[in-house]
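Proteins fold reproducibly. Consider a sample protein:
=====
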Amino acid sequence: MPKLRTVVLAAGAALLARRALRRRIQASPLWPMPALEEPTSGRPRSRALRLLVTSHETIADGVVQLRLEGRDLPRWEPGAHLDLVLPSGLVRQYSLCGDPEDTSSYTVATRLVADGRGGSREVHEQVTEGMELEVRGPRNRFPLVEAESYVFVAGGIGITPLLAMLRTLPENADWRLLYAGRDRASMPFLEEVEKLGRMGVPPGERSRAWGRVTVVEGRPDLDALEVGEGAAVYCCGPEGLMTAVAARFPDVRLERFAPRASSDGNAEFELELRRSGRTLAVPADSTVLAAVRRELPDTAYSCEQGFCGTCQQRVLEGEIDHRDELLTDEERADSMLICVSRARGDRLVLDM
């Protein structure tokens, strides 16, 4: 009983103390405290999942396909991609190329880039069946819109986001695909793509030169690409191919997995970190993120390619050269992804 009485008395004293503190706060001239503005830096874009690698398969020369299994996975629509956190901690983005209705697994594919930054080599050589990977997403910045007809242009591994679109379209949909690659052996999903092209096409029309699917080994002839009025044009592939398609069809929808280059190139500029009271120089051959982390090493970042949003920071002054593929127009008005974007003038001020 004495022990119980002590507990009751302690609880009562704590309650009285809380009430007294509340009365003091409410009597303060600063009450209610002004709400803090919601921070933008490091804002999470999606929850992380731990998925099991159940298949690691070579499906074309230099191309590996991963099957990642889990339970009740978030649904996705054609054009969506995942962030894969690789064993080394690198984060890379890969288009989903499986079945959007399958909530038990995700499928992605990647080509080995020998002179790349290491992500594709890690997928090919270090990711194995039975391994668990952290996955973020899905996210979709490349959605399939309703249109009278469709023209798809894929270069090599760029077929991956377009494949789910082709599977989703009705059999009687009016669509064309131009699929280019180094050679047929290096082009993933080629047999399935050609089969999809024959579906719904009368046998007498399958011998047309264009048909639904045109496969090109080498550089494609974009002049032969006919796009009717009201058609939606989609393109994914090497930067050179996307640049050429965009020059010919300005309304094309593009899917990039590398930072957007600026036609003006890079120049050195001054960067002020207002809250830290520091002023830095960002060299032409470096990034805002690199400059900031030399002064503030705990600054959050992840993909370093302008896709995940981890390094988003508020901009107080200066014109921004946005090179990301993530932020909305509203977000771009006063913030930037410091891993890829730069100043459009000679000075920027960040709220850091």
